[in-house]
Every structure is written in C-alpha cells, then in structure tokens.
Amino acid sequence: MAEGKFSVIIVSWNVKAELERCLASLMRERNGEPGFTVTVVDNASADGTAAMVRQKFPNFKLIAQDENIGFARACNLGAQDSSADYLVFLNPDTEITTGFFSDLER
C-alpha cells in the first residue's frame, strides 16, 4: 500500500480517553501498514485531549482549534489538509482491527 493512500480524519471534543484508544489502534495498524496518515482536529477540548495527542502520538498531525468550530467545519478542515486518495472519517470512540486498511483497499 502506498504511503498516504488513506487519510484518517478524527474530530475530537473532550474525548481524551476514547481518542487515546482510537489512536492506539491506528498506531498498531500503522506498524504493519504504513500507507495512511492521521489528522486529529480538536475542537478546543478542555480535558487535555490536544496535549495527549502531542505527547503520545507525535507522528499524527494535530490541528488544535482555539474555539469549537463544530463537527462539519472540523471535518472539512481535516479534509482540506489531506492529499490522500481516500478520506476515512472516524469517530474518536472507534477502534480499528488488524487489516482494516487492506480490507478498504480491496
């Protein structure tokens, strides 16, 4: 799978614990299949979500907003930042399983 074929976009707002599990599942998959990027658009969370992403997942892109711009605008912001062939929007409480991207590619 080519690098950057898929761009995963996740919008977050005060979901630190859920997002950490989601990003950990993506990190596990990335070790086996590096053909995707991850962008988190944080809508001004007050629970330390952005700091957690910066600290624990420095290879994933974080777009931290100063104010909550809403779900749709945040999705669009993440999409505008991507140059991948395919966009994959995930909710922060999603945990992917092994082979997720291979299955999508088929």
Structure description:
The chain has 106 residues and is α/β, with parallel strands linked by helices. It has a single domain (6-105), classed as Spore Coat Polysaccharide Biosynthesis Protein SpsA, Chain A, CATH 3.90.550.10. The chain has four helices and four strands. The protein is globular and about 40 Å long. The mean pLDDT is 93.
Query: According to CATH, what is the class?
Result: Alpha Beta
Distance between the termini: 11 Å
Strand order of the largest sheet: 3-2-1-4
Mean pLDDT: 93
- Helix/sheet category: alpha/beta
- The figure for the number of domains is 1
How much β-strand is present in the residues? 15-25%
Spans of at least 5 consecutive residues whose pLDDT stays below 50 are: none
CATH topology: Spore Coat Polysaccharide Biosynthesis Protein SpsA, Chain A
Order of helices and strands: EHEHEHEH
The outline comes out as globular
The count of helical stretches stands at: 4
The CATH architecture comes to Alpha-Beta Complex
Which range best describes the helical content: under 10%, 10-25%, 25-40%, 40-55%, 55-70% or over 70%? 25-40%
Major β-sheet profile: 4 strands, parallel
Let me know the CATH homologous superfamily.
Spore Coat Polysaccharide Biosynthesis Protein SpsA, Chain A
**Cα gyration radius (Å):** 13 Å
Q: Could you tell me the number of beta strands? A: 4
What's the structural blueprint in terms of helices and strands?
Elements: E1 6-12, H1 16-32, E2 36-42, H2 49-56, E3 61-64, H3 71-80, E4 86-90, H4 100-105
Parallel strand pairs: 1-2, 1-4, 2-3
Helix pairs in contact: 1-2
